[in-house]
């Protein structure tokens, strides 16, 4: 695939100048960033105004699950715009109802009611509100090494440094340690030990906080930005049992892991667990139009059968977003995108990344499934010292910055967070594209190797 436009550096400079003058970027010191001006994108690739093409191993922000500009989804958005561009959420609209039906068909258990939001953070906000109203309790447990969004409650639930500037310790959130054997907080040596000790730690924390005060436990089914730490066998089932024991609502956050990313429609299918509430966004329509939501169990929906739910959004179930979701789900089913994600993970990415780990001293661990993988980069494989310190910036982050620059030089746009790089291409990535990405990672890891001891 080649860029669909001739290189035009002058146009690119104009785009960057306007960006610098008027756009305020997320999570950034505005004067220290230099955003790439993107001229176009298609499938697994995007390109700049200088004609440089990049294989996107980030899927945008892990949401373009069917790649960029899929013609069937683009056409569905265009057709919906011609028919009914927008309408208030209090009305029954055909495309909104159909999107909800298609999602409910794929969610586990009795999660058959869908509350639409504009994205994942709003989905988390509303899931927590539902849990608190359903139980009459206030506290919510969430894990360190997690990300749940940047709105008020969601950022307090988040367990990484992005929470710190906004955390007033007054949001009713209690953090705990979830299992992560490679960097175990429980001094475990096996997955079984890690699972048992993590569950005991969670139940002990609940006991000391007062079970009667806890409304919900929220977990990313497979934590995403925090490092793609697949939970050990039995852990999520154990959390489900703890929730049932104390009358606590179990919320699974599938904003990043859902809609094919792990090789299943939802990651919870890998673990045979049905939560009370499930949040989704991103892959539901490949991010083509903002959309998220909460899938709600029968017992929680019943709470609001004759009692009004005190929440809503002007653009809840927006027709253009729902049309994109309907088309995306049909594309994923018809083109076997979920099956492709599973196959690529099992036969290309998993084996390929593990082979890189054998050859590169900077790769401490490979973990993941489907098209959802992380490489934990280290200075020393024996000590597992991270390649850069936790939350490193500036010169302390130089090794990861050098790795990222090398990847881009080789035509790969990498997902880099702290001491990790994630391999998270589109769910419909081809075998050839996945191998192209592995080759670029191979070259970039040689740069990371220079910082090992």
Structure explained in plain terms:
- With 453 residues, the protein is α/β, with parallel strands linked by helices.
- The chain has 13 helices and 16 strands.
- Strands 4-10-9-8-7-5-6 form a 7-stranded mixed beta sheet, sandwiched between helices. Strands 11, 12, 13, 15 and 16 form a 5-stranded antiparallel beta sheet that branches. A 4-stranded mixed beta sheet has the order 1-2-3-14.
- Helix 4 (94-106) crosses helix 10.
- The chain is globular, with a radius of gyration of 22 Å.
- The chain starts with 8 loop residues before the first helix and ends with a helix.
- The relative contact order is 0.14.
- The model has no long low-confidence stretch (mean pLDDT 97).
In short:
The protein is of the alpha/beta class and 453 residues long. It has 13 helices and 16 strands. 38% of the residues lie in helices and 17% in strands.
């Amino acid at each position: 695939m080649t860029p669909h436009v001739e290189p035009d550096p002058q146009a690119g400079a104009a785009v960057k100048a306007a960006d610098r003058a008027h756009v305020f970027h997320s999570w950034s010191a505005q004067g220290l960033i230099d955003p790439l001006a993107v001229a176009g994108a298609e499938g697994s690739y995007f390109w700049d105004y200088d004609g440089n093409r990049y294989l996107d191993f980030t899927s945008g922000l892990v949401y373009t699950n069917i790649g960029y500009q899929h013609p069937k989804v683009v056409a569905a958005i265009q057709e919906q715009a011609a028919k009914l561009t927008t309408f208030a959420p209090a009305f029954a609209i055909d495309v909104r109802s159909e999107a909800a039906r298609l999602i409910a068909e794929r969610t586990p258990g009795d999660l058959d009611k869908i509350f639409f939001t504009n994205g994942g953070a709003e989905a988390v906000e509303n899931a927590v509100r539902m849990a608190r109203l359903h139980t009459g309790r206030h506290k919510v447990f969430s894990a360190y090494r997690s990300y749940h969004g940047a709105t008020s409650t969601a950022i307090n639930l988040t367990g990484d440094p992005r929470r710190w500037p906004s955390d007033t310790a007054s949001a009713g959130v209690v953090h705990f340690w979830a299992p992560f054997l490679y960097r175990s907080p429980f001094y475990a040596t096996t997955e079984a030990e890690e699972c048992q000790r993590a569950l005991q730690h969670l139940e002990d924390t609940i006991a000391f906080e007062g079970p009667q005060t806890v409304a919900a436990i929220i977990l990313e089914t497979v934590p995403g930005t925090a490092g793609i730490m697949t939970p050990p066998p039995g852990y999520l089932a154990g959390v489900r049992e703890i929730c049932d024991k104390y009358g606590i609502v179990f919320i699974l956050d599938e904003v990043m892991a859902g809609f094919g990313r792990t090789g299943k429609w939802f990651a919870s299918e890998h673990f045979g667990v049905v939560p009370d509430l499930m949040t989704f966004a991103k892959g539901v329509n490949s991010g083509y139009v903002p959309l998220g939501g909460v899938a709600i169990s029968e017992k929680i929906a019943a709470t609001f059968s004759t009692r009004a739910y005190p929440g809503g959004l002007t653009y809840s179930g927006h027709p253009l977003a729902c049309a994109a979701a309907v088309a995306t789900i049909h594309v994923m089913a018809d083109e076997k995108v979920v099956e492709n994600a599973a196959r690529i993970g099992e036969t290309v990415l998993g084996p390929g990344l593990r082979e890189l780990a054998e050859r590169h001293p900077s790769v401490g661990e490979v973990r993941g499934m489907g098209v959802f993988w992380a490489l934990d980069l280290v200075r020393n494989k024996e000590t597992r010292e991270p390649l850069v310190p936790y939350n490193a910036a500036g010169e302390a982050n130089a090794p990861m910055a050098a790795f990222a620059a090398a990847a881009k030089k080789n035509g790969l746009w990498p997902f880099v967070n702290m001491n990790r790089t994630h391999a998270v291409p589109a769910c419909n990535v081809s075998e050839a594209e996945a191998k192209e990405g592995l080759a670029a990672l191979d070259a970039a890891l040689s740069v990371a190797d220079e910082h090992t001891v």
